[in-house]
Specification:
- The protein has one domain: Orthogonal Bundle (ABC transporter involved in vitamin B12 uptake, BtuC).
- 70% of the residues lie in helices and 3% in strands.
- The chain has eleven helices and two strands; from the N terminus they run ααααββααααααα.
- A two-stranded antiparallel sheet has the order 1-2.
- The longest helix is centred in the first third of the chain and has 32 residues.
- The chain is globular, with a radius of gyration of 19 Å.
């Protein structure tokens, strides 16, 4: 907001770009949660904890590799795979035994895992916050329609649509994606065709965990990495999934856009209430579209 109290087109456009870059993080995390919810029917509360672990792992790997551009890329690749491996251990070790239990039990179980992960993060990395600067390649700004915009935010703007297309292709055009969708509708029929449904569920869960870890790795250079950063993201991710439509990739993208833009523009237009504006937008959407912006595809 300008000193004279007037919002200029330049400042508004800049906030829109910032909101769109944050939308990428929200979409990646929420789409992973949407996959798990849609196929396995599991309200995975520790999805946010995996996001937090991804951020801490990206920090540790980047610093260990000298905080170089190459180190950042290696960390961006390895951190989500490490998080996915952690998710696989939990899924194969315990979660697969609870698929037929009531949703309340699954909710309590995933909440318990989130508490365990929170303590693990505190034991490994301590209670102090960590900060990670963008690598040299992403430092500085570039002009975007005459506006100076951070390079790293621009990278996220480009990554978001590419990730959405890749995820849509995986779920709609590949064999494993089609099998996953079929298993979410009629697990018994898919099993009768000789397909190992448990392995399909494991694959989907690992993909969802990978997305949570990727979101955490991507957010690491943008904000402080602290214990408890999982709380806000899991609330936002659940709301994005709800307003977007269960299992709908494009719905998750639209939900993330609503959250990212209302938060960013609200900080400019009405900074005192910028925190609550995204939630007000969610309420408005659910009043007119109680089943979500787009229909559920699972």
């Amino acid at each position: 907001m300008e000193s004279a109290g007037i919002i200029t087109f330049t400042s508004l456009f800049q906030q829109i770009l910032v909101g769109l870059s944050r939308t990428t993080i929200l979409f990646i995390v929420a789409s992973g949660l949407s996959l798990v919810l849609g196929v396995l029917r599991i309200p995975n509360i520790f999805h946010g904890s995996l996001y937090m672990i991804g951020a801490f792992m990206a920090y540790t790997l980047t610093v260990s590799l000298g905080n170089t551009t190459m180190g950042f890329w290696i960390a961006l690749i390895l951190a989500p795979f490490i998080v996915a491996a952690v998710g696989l251990v939990v899924e194969r070790g315990v979660l697969r035994l609870l698929y037929d239990r009531e949703h309340l039990m699954l909710l309590l179980f995933t909440f318990s895992i989130s508490l365990i992960f929170s303590d693990m993060v505190k034991l490994i990395w301590g209670a102090k916050f960590r900060s990670l600067s963008p690598p040299l390649f992403f430092q500085g700004s570039v002009p975007v329609f005459g506006i100076s915009f951070p390079k790293y935010n621009l990278f996220l703007l480009i990554l978001g649509p590419l990730f959405a297309l890749g995820l849509w292709f995986l779920t709609n055009k590949t064999k494993i994606g089609k099998i996953s969708r079929a298993a979410s509708v009629d697990m018994e029929m898919v099993g009768a065709m000789g397909i190992n449904v448990n392995l399909v569920f494991a694959f989907v869960f690992v993909i969802g965990c990978f997305m949570a870890g990727l979101g955490g790795a991507l957010i690491a250079p943008m904000q402080n990495i602290i214990q408890g950063m999982d709380h806000n993201i899991i609330i936002e991710a659940f709301l994005i999934v709800i307003i977007g439509g269960l299992g709908n990739i494009w719905g998750a993208l639209m939900g993330a856009l609503i959250f990212g833009l209302t938060s960013s523009i609200g900080a400019l237009v009405w900074p005192q209430f910028s925190i609550v504006l995204p939630y007000i937008a969610v309420v408005i959407v659910l009043i007119f579209r109680p089943k979500g912006i787009l229909k559920s595809v699972w």
